[in-house]
Amino acid sequence: MRRTLGRLVRIFLLYGIRMLTLLAAVSILSFVLINASPIDPVQQYILGLGTAVSPEQRAEIEAYWGVNEPPLERCLGWLSGLLQGNLGESALFRRPVADIIRERFLNSLALMLCAWLSAGIIGFVLGCVMGMNQDKWADKLLKKVCYLLSSVPTFWLGLVLLLVFSVGLKWFPIGFSSPIGVRGQDVTLWQKLHHLILPAFTLSLMSFANIALHTRQKLIDVLHSEYILFARARGERNLTILRRHGLRNILLPALTLQFTSFAELFGGSVMAENVFSYPGLGSAVSAAGLGGDVPLLLGITLFSALFVCTGNMIANLLYGIIDPRIREAEK
Amino acid sequence: MKKTNHRTKVMILTILMAGIVIFFYAFGSLIPGDAAEGNFLYAGQPPSWGHPFGTDALGRDLFIRTFKGMAISMTVGLTASALSAVIALFVGIAAAAGSKWIDAIVNWLIDLVMSIPHTVLVILISFAMGRGLKGLLIGITATHWCSLARLIRGEVLQLRSRQYVAISHKLGKSTGWILMHHLLPHLVPQFLVGLILMFPPAILHEASVSFLGFGLPPEQPAIGIILSESMRYLSAGMWWPAVLPGLVLVLLVLLIDQLGEQLKIILDPYSAQE
Amino acid sequence: MQPHNDTLLEIHDLSVSFRMYHHGLEQTKLQVISDLQLTVAPGEIVAVAGSSGSGKSLLASAILGILPHNAAVSGHLHYKGQELTAERQRQLRGTEIALVPQSVSYLDPLMKTGPQTDGHRRPKPVEKRSALFRRLGLPEQTAKLYPFQLSGGMARRVLVSTALLTDARLIIADEPTPGMSLDQALEALRLFREMAKAGKSVLLITHDIDLAFEFADTVAVFYAGTTVETAPASDFRIGPAALRHPYSKALWQSLPQNAFHPVEGFQPYAGDLPKGCLFAPRCPCKTTQCTTQVPPMREVRGGKVRCYHGT
User: pTM for the complete prediction?
Assistant: First the structure.
């Protein structure tokens, strides 16, 4: 037990260092990219104010943003702010970026978690069904459906679902995570859910095909292994084989895939949130990009990288905990 | 007899699909720019014989706009996937055939690109390039080379451990000679299949990014832009600008995907076996 | 062909072939077992001996009915005088017929040895298993180890114990000794002999010709997917004079302690077998008849031989 813990701490530290170098690189890279942009953030900020600005005021804003300092100093300034937890102030929302990310991430998290869980479970179950029935009609049909879904762009699927369920059937509202005109604290859980279902459904439809195909392939590989041949020789039938050996051997790769798919999940949520006007990080990042809101764009980019790295870290730790070949190798 | 039948069937199917894709592309490219000009008299009409896909809110014919947009999307997708495939080829070979530190740098670079969600990275790059076509191309190229580069790296590593490569080394052949005579012939099929299979996601990405407003300028009839415009009229019940162009996009992507799979069977039979 | 009542397993004219997709587009047929004859009596140890890569392991799969889906099987299998249908194979495998596989890769890498040896049937034979482990000299904590933690010899004994735990009448051991030390191999073989004395039959599939000659009651020489000669092991201990088939003689000559003279040529490729006798291309005494017609299995001096010239 103590050994396991020690090893986990080691994986955590090793991967943690790697993660920190990656995050540092991401922050520098995104800063350089944004610095290269011909879009003038001060101009965008002033446009956002909606009022005329005197040259003095403009100079004041420029000084605040540090536009006239050399890029290196600006970068260092931003990084040191970052280390103190200060991500700057959003030009679009006139609020600290950290606050916006916190608030919006909760919304995105609800959306992504629903999609992630349902896609993971449905994908795994369908993958097992396909793998057990390899090349039979059920497998062929489901495989076609999965390939079809992976050729459909998320946002178009969202549009079609919106047309059918919101415009046509009027089951779900069009856009926003709470009804318009209702104040934040008055929104009931049911209303929130009501706005969540369709985007979450879209997002999970987009991810489950990949998981199902992956699980199918893993299961087929396992079923063709020598230990399954031996299990058959010992009289185990299909369902026993799936229960005793199949699940045991495909669960870990499936879990790993789930945690390493955070990048696609986040990318998908950007599209889904934009189609359904869902107020999460995804709609914020595209708004920040379109509106020239540099601090918000930088903040969300960095946060999304942190999110992805966390997923990878969990996957690595899971391997250390679950796989006996790694867990017991040191004994 | 049966042997030749199967082979011929795969060949004919491949040529047929390639023909359809090229026809789509030529048809879209040959449409003159003014053919899709708006006429407010016909604004917002549902599909009819005159306008198979209906017209949009500005009275532009959606059938023409869709196919013209498809051609533009294909150009962007093809350019971006060709660029990233070439990058993947060079990076993959450099990582596997070069010294250890190149490999370490490449792996770290791939991890870096993979650690930012693609959509976010494309938004960032597009912002850096001041939006427009250039940003879109660079963004899609920058995000798509990773997996193929990893594949090629693995392939080269495997080839390098083969005996005949070791023997060539012993015989005093230069690294360049070995690369040309032993590695490239094996990598070409992988590269071609990788290139074609990269094409569909590149097109989908182009459409997604244009939909978000970071890609082509709004006056261009790209699929993403048509769909993004259709959002405004959804609640009014105008379903055709959203459904039909998207359907064409899906069909095209499916077609190219199948084309890639068929080519895989012809070029690289062992990996396609199931 | 009437099955004998005093035999446990009788295989008659068994052929197994695979449909393969060559280069993804062209179809070829691989004939891995052709017209194989084999009889196993109760309490007998029969060795099927032949060089590696001649499809011997597939014989075990064919008896158990666990060949891959793309395999085509013809011929007759009888177990205890009854036709061995797919349904009966399903009932018998793991209960009446047990397999001892080749290597540790036949164990689920993520399942601990104890529950894995117990198998899926209930009640779990936990007591019996720990007694058996003690007898085989496996330490107490073996049950808690994963397959990758077992040494070669331990893994082998675990594999053997999976078969010993069942009440199987027929044990098919596929290459049971490689990777073992001489002592361990002898111990494993002693176990098989003990089982045979208790009335069980053992079908030993091996490429270790020495072992087959020394240890089995009957040896079947396997060549290119068929048995060319079946004879008492004592004949093989005597030498070429007592043997019937040119290949058996050549095989005997190839042993290090004999002439150490390798058999010339190669076994034919399963996708392109010769038309007549499978050994004809390499045979020193072939005639035109050999190259056009498959010789039948003949009784010669208390053994069986598939050769026109065998005496």
Answer: 0.83
